[in-house]
């Protein structure tokens, strides 16, 4: 079980090192005056620091290395 968690941490950490964020589109209402509604698509971005991915990779390696063999 611990070995699986460690491998998952390594994979997620490596993905975070490769892709440092993502963007998505959200529809927001600009005008809402009775029957008149105007909405616009706005792009939002989510970013994380690259060192966070490195920490996850190192943590996953430690968990895999210290896991007891079954």
TrEMBL record:
<protein>
    <recommendedName>
        <fullName>DUF3185 domain-containing protein</fullName>
    </recommendedName>
</protein>
<keyword id="KW-0812">Transmembrane</keyword>
<feature type="transmembrane region" description="Helical">
    <location>
        <begin position="48"/>
        <end position="67"/>
    </location>
</feature>
<feature type="transmembrane region" description="Helical">
    <location>
        <begin position="7"/>
        <end position="25"/>
    </location>
</feature>
<keyword id="KW-0472">Membrane</keyword>
<keyword id="KW-1133">Transmembrane helix</keyword>
């Amino acid at each position: 079980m611990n070995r699986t968690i460690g491998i998952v941490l390594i994979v997620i950490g490596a993905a975070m090192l490769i892709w440092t964020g993502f963007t998505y589109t959200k529809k927001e209402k600009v005008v809402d005056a009775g029957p008149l509604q105007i909405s616009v698509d706005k792009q939002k971005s989510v970013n994380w620091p690259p060192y966070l991915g490195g920490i996850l990779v190192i943590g996953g390696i430690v968990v895999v290395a210290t896991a007891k063999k079954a």
